[in-house]
From TrEMBL:
EC numbers: 2.7.1.39
Compartment list: Cytoplasm
UniProt name for this protein: Homoserine kinase
GO annotation, cellular component aspect: cytoplasm
Gene encoding the protein: thrB
The GHMP kinase N-terminal domain, residue ranges: 67-146
Keyword tRNA processing: no
Any one Gene Ontology molecular-function term assigned to this protein's record: homoserine kinase activity
Keywords: Amino-acid biosynthesis, ATP-binding, Cytoplasm, Kinase, Nucleotide-binding, Threonine biosynthesis, Transferase
Functional note: Catalyzes the ATP-dependent phosphorylation of L-homoserine to L-homoserine phosphate.
Record field: transmembrane: none
Amino acid sequence: NSVTVQAPGTVANLVCGFDVLGLCLDAPYDTMVIRLLDEKKVIIESADGYPLPTDPALNTAGAPLVEMLKEIEENIGFEVIIHKAIKPGSGIGSSAASAAGAVVGANVLLNNRFTKEDLVRFALFGEKVASGVKHADNIAPGIYGGITLIRSIFPLDIVAIPAPELFVTVVHPQIEVKTSDARQILRKEVLLKDAIKQWGNIAGLVAGFMKNDYDLIGRSLEDVIIEPVRSILIPGFADVKQRSVAAGALGGGISGSGPSIFMLSKDEETAHAVEAIMHDVYNGVGLDHHVYVTKVN
Ligand code: HSE
């Protein structure tokens, strides 16, 4: 009585949509095996010796399952064996993949008794463990797939956004940026003129996705509030962005809270040209890095 889940990486924020937009990647993904137990408990194990907190309340996969069990009458529990492929602190939704994969897998074992929205509600407890804040812009796309708008968290209101085919090139420079730190450094207040630009871009981006308008998508991938603060933590950021756009990418920016950078392209050839640029920039900076060429899934 077990199920194997591929829990994909996700890109949160999509540049202008801090905490409200996210997309699901085709790769990389964690592999998780979830097994039904006949007592009310949650067991967490690492498949490859990767150090994970094994106290379920402190684990990003465990905390959501503990919450789920509170809404289940039967005397059951779950064992989760996690094979991590998405590095924590990479900015491509490592904690969210564990949280989303755990609840999706558990729900399959329960004959899908919970809705996707319920699953997001449970998985948010994993993000709380990981970063101290409940944000759904990684777990919602991880659970729904594609591109999602989180219009509201309290109460939950998630909108799946249809979009044209999009290739994603992601570079993960090997520095660690903790989401909690990357949130701490943000200004708490925003100028009205910046807010106007930002919500124009968010609306433009969503309209661009829904109208299959690649130019509008490209024009809207601009962040005047978060990126100027966070990009300082990421060497090579401006170079990657400028050179990728010059090579034909639609645009891009910091993936989640960084340090990964993602660029969107409308065809695979451009996505690979961006890959070459990313290697070139980080070889120049002298930073170990990993590049993924993948798609929105
Ligand atoms: N929206 C969150 C942030 C995502 O940018 O802090 C973290 O992956």
